[in-house]
Amino acid sequence: MTGTRYWLPTQSAPATSSASAPSSGAFDVEAVRRDFPQLHREVNGHPLIWLDNGATTFKPRQVTEAVGEHYARDASNVHRGAHTLAKQATQVYEEGREEAAKLLGTRDTGEVVFVRGTTEAVNLVAQSWGRANLGVGDEILVSAAEHHSNLVPWQLIAKERRARVVPIPLLPDGQLDQDAYRDLLNNKTKLVALTHASNVLGTVPPVAQMTALAHRWGARVLVDGAQAVSHFPVDVTELDADFYAFSGHKVFAPTGIGVLFGKREILEAMPPWQGGGNMIDSVSFEKTSYAPLPHRLEAGTGHIAGVAGLRAALRYLGTLNRKTATEYEEQLTAYATSALSTVPGLRLLGTAPGKIGVLTFLLADAEPTHLAGLLDQQGIAVRAGHHCAQPALAAYGVTSAVRASLAMYNTVEDVDTLVAALHEAVDA
Ligand code: PLP
After folding, report:
1. CA-based Rg of the chain, rounded to a whole angstrom?
2. How far is CA 173 from the centre of its chain?
3. Is any ligand 1 atom within 6 A of the Cβ of residue 405?
4. DSSP class of residue 326?
């Protein structure tokens, strides 16, 4: 890729090469944008500015084509039947698993379990590992920055096992309080549930360091990567995470498909959490034995078209230079943070160094849902509400806020349009 990095307002350079060409130089946002048709539609008579990437990301045409082709031409079930289409579908499915393994930095596809998304991944671990490993008085440390999907499953299993969920508090800028964390760890700690990037504050905690500390106490660590995987490269081996979860739809793939990574020896020791087809070796009324990993944890027919889309999305990401994409997003986040600070009365929640492009804010006494409605009338899509992270907002004494969340295909113009609209809202 030869395009110049040109997010700065003073710079401009036409994109000269396709985003799907191997990338060597700086990140060419216009080339990437051309691959995402939905970015080019209008909403309420205005060009759409999509700043709700934290909720879901758009799909490149490579993904919609892969899903369309599956249903139009290649539909079949997998892992069964001796016919050609079943073999082809199985190949696509397992290649999707290989792509997910590559994305996460493991070579062992047995460690990659397909699930519906991050929520199902956490519930799988809570219901299977949690039920087998938690007992009376055991503690699960959960950061106060977690999405409800990395908190409520722990509350459910803790209640059943008479264990305790203990919050890891936040510092005022949205970082996790590392001194408090060190003090909270003890020999009753069995699991630490940590986000790799907060969906409401943008915080990226020092996961490798926190995992190493947890391991000293013999605790397992589950990392919620829902907001991380689209923003920066991830390596579960470097993190030494015991479990890592993400949702396809937040990394340019379809909804309804996601991944749970688990270390082989831990997954091997976990009982199946659901029973049915695909996950068995042999079945009789006397004795049932289970298939090897990862199928043992994948009962029933999976989301085959979703995996075809996930494979396409991860291959698409593989054609980009992730390092320059991450740098671009970092610069855009810095630009947006500084631009938002010019809006009178705007209070940004979450200012931790190294945060991802999640910009959650309050504007004077404007009601967040009302403000989001005003922006929507101008084609600017942001989210308002509690963002499924009520404890994180509670740490700031609020129950609702507006969130603009960036992806690699957003531009400085998107940010400028948002900021101009906010200035107008203040002046109105
Ligand atoms: N974790 C985080 C940090 C999220 O942002 C989300 C979704 O917004 C989830 C988990 C849940 O993801 P899903 O609804 O795809 O299971």
Report:
1. 22
2. 21
3. no
4. H
Count, residues in the chain: 428
Q: Ligand 1: does its nearest atom lie under 6 Å from the Cβ of 147? A: yes
- Classified as helix, coil or strand, 266 is helix
How far, in Å, CA of 195 to CA of 228, rounded?
A: 9
Residues recognised as catalytic: 388
Ligand 1 centroid to 386 CA: how many Å?
13
Q: How far is the CA of 388 from the centre of ligand 1 (A)?
A: 8
Whether residue 227 contacts residue 359, with contact meaning beta carbons closer than 8 Å, is answered with no
Domains and CATH numbers, the chain: 10-51+320-427 (3.90.1150.10), 63-318 (3.40.640.10)
**Ligand 1 pocket: which of 56, 124, 125, 147 to mutate (most atoms within 8 A of CB):** 147
Residue type, 306: G
Nearest CA to ligand 1 atom 5: 199
Given a contact cutoff of 8 angstroms between Cβ atoms, the answer to whether 42 and 377 are in contact is no
Record the tokens describing residue 221, joined without a space: 């660590």
Residue 415 tokens read as 């940010």
Tens-digit pLDDT string for the chain (428 aa)? 233 332 333 333 323 223 333 333 589 999 999 999 999 999 999 999 999 999 999 999 999 999 999 999 999 999 877 899 999 999 999 999 999 999 999 999 999 999 999 999 999 999 999 999 999 999 999 999 999 999 999 999 999 999 999 999 999 999 999 999 999 999 999 999 999 999 999 999 999 999 999 999 999 999 999 999 999 999 999 999 999 999 999 999 999 999 999 999 999 999 999 999 999 999 999 999 999 999 999 999 999 999 999 999 999 999 999 999 999 999 999 999 999 999 999 999 999 999 999 999 999 999 999 999 999 999 999 999 999 999 999 999 999 999 999 999 999 999 999 999 999 999 98
